[in-house]
Amino acid sequence: MANNTAHSTGPVWDWAAGHGPVTGALSATTGALALAATGAATGMPPAWVLAAGTAGAIGHTVTSLRDRLAARTITMRAASWLLGAGWTTWAMTTGPFTWTALGSLATLGIGISASARSTLLHEEARELEAIAAAERQVSRELSAERRAIAAEWVDRIQRVCGLTIRVLAVEMWPTGTGFTIDAELPAGGTTYDRIARESARLSADARLPHGCTATATAGIDQGRVLIDVTTVNVLAEEVTYPTDYAPLSLLTGIPWGLRTDGRQVPVYLREQCALVVGPTGSGKTNMVHTILAGFARTTDVLTWVIDLNAGSAGLPWVRPALTSHGGEVLRPGVDWLASTHEEAALMLDAAVRIAKHRKMAYQDLMAKANTDLLPISAQIPQIEIVIDEGAEILTAMDRPSKVLAAKILEVIRIARAMGIRTVLTALGATGSVLGNLMIRREGKVRVALTGGETEGMDLGKQFPGSRGLRVDQAPYKGSGFIGTPESPAGLFKSWRILPNQIRDIVAATSDRHPTLDTVSAKAAGPDYARRWDSARTAWIHDHTPDPEPTGEPDAAAPASRAGGLNLSAHRTTAEPPTTPAVSEEDALARKFREQIDAQFATTPEPHTPTAPEGEQVSGLNLSAFRNGQNEGAARQAALDVLLAAGVEGTGASAIARALTNEHGTSRQTVVGWLKEWAEQGIAIRIGTGTKTRYIHHRHAPDTPTEG
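Now predict its structure.
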C-alpha cells in the first residue's frame, strides 16, 4: 500500500513574517553586495546609489518620528541606510569581491544586527513602561474613587448604625450598576446583622434611587461584612428571557432571573423543593413559565405540571405539540399535565410508586457510585412536579384537595433521594401557607414576587433570618426577592416570556427531553403510559363555548374541533351515516382511530352490562364521549347562571354552589371557564381580588341586548 503521508524535507519558511535583527542585517548586506556587483558590471554612476541611500534615511526618519520611536532607533535606521549606501558606492568603484570589500561588508552587517537588537529591546521596554504608566494612572483614579466611597460609607455606617468599620476593599461591579464593600467589623463580638437590619435607613441616607438598596451579608469570616450597594434601578425595566436556549443540567444550576448587579440567579434543585409566592398581578404566572422554560432546556429533567385552574400554566407548553403542522413533530414542553383532582391524584400516585421502586431497583447503581442519592442523568431523569397554587391546595378544606395535599406531602417526604422534587406556588406568604413544617424544611429555594403588594406578604416568614427586606423595595411587576441555600435572600428580576417565545422554546428543546427510565416507567404503570390518551386530554381541545341549548342534539354540528385530531370520543354529535366528501383531516382522524383499535384491547364502558361469553364487543370505549357531554352540560349550566345574574353579575363561588347539586363542578373549574369566556368576550370581568365578578356580555353597560 502506498504511503500518502507527507514528510518534511527542510525548514518551513514564513515569507509573511517581518525581519528581525539577524535577518534584517543579512538582507541589507546581501542586497548591498548584489547592487554593488551589478553597478560595477554595468558602469552605474555611484552617485545614484548614494542618492538612494540618502532618500531611504530621510524616509525612515520621517516614519520613525511619526511612530514616536526613540532617538536611538531613529539614528540607527538612518545610519544603516547611509553606511549601506556608502559601502555600495565605494565597492562599485574599487570592486565588490575583494577581501577588503567583503570583510568590511561582514563587519557592517554585524554592526547593524547588534544595533538593531539593542534598539528593539529599548523600544519594547519603552512600550511596557508606557502601558504600566497608563495602568498606574487608571489605578490611581480608581483608587481615588474607591477611597472616596470607602470614606463616605465609613461615615454613613457610623452615623446610622453607630459602628466604626474598617473598609478593606471596594469592588466595582462590571455592569456599572453598583459596588460591593468588604469591611472588617469592630471588635467586641459585633455581627453583620447590626448593619443588615438598617438597610432601609442606609439606603435613604445614601439617597439611592427607588429600587436600589444597601444590603449587608456575611463576609469571609464572622468578623467581616459584605455590603452590596445598588446605584442603578434594574428592576423597573422588563427583561425578556434569553434567546440562547442552550442545554442546561439540573446538577449545574438553572437560571431563574437576574440579580441587581446583572448576574443570573442559578438554583440547584437536586435535593431542594421550591416555593414561589406572588399575589395577583405580580408576575407569578410569568415566573412559572420561566421555571418551565428552564426545565425544558435541561437534559436530565422531566416536568410534570398540576394546575387545577383549567391547566392554564401548562397548556402553552403542550399546545405547540398538539397543533404542530407541516410535518413538524414536536414533543410537549411538559411530560404530564393535570388539570383536575382526579388526574393530579393519578400523577402523584405514580410519583410515589416511582420513588419506592427506584429505592429497590437502583441499589446496585448507588452502591457503585458510593452515594445514597440516586445519580441523576439523561438516562435516569429527575421528575420536577410544578404545582400552581399548590400551597393553597395544602391549606384547602374540601375533601378532594385534602386527598391531594396528603399525596403532595408524601412525595415531598419520601422522594428526595430518588430524584422527585416539587415546585409549589402560592398567592401570599402567610402563616397558613408557610405553617407546614414539611414545606419550610424541604422548600429552601424561595421566591417572593411582590409587585408592590403588601397584604399577605410577610417576608420575615418566607425568609427567616434575613434582615432589611421590605416589599416597597421591589414595587415593579416581575421583581421581588429570591433566596437559596447557596445565596442569601436578595432582590432579583424575573424574565418576561411571551407566548410566541414559549413555542420557540418547545421547538428548540423538543429533541432534548429525556424519556422516563424503564424501571420508573414500569412502576408508573398505565396511568403514566396513557397520560396523553384522547379521553384524558379531550379538555385541551375544547376551546369554544357550547352552543345555546335547543332541546335536541344538533345533528349538523361540526365533526371536528380546531387544534388536534378529530376523535369520535371528542365530538359533540355523531357523524352522519353518509359523507359526500372526506376531508384530509377526517381521513387522518379515521386512520388514527383504526390504529388505536388495532393497538389497544377493546374496553367496555363502565357501569354497562358485559357481553355474553364468547361474544366479542367491538368499538372504542365511549366513556370520554359521555364525560365530554357531562362537562358540556355543566359549562352550559354555568353560562345560564351567569346570564340569569343580570347586570349585577356573579362570581365563581356562587356559580359553583349553584352547580353543586346537579353537576358537582369545583370552583377551580368555574374559574377556568370564566377566564376563558372573558378572553372570548362572552363575559366581562369587573373588579379584582375578592370583589371580582363577571357579567354576561348581553347585560354589559352600553351593549344592546339581543332579542
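The two ends are 95 Å apart (CA to CA).
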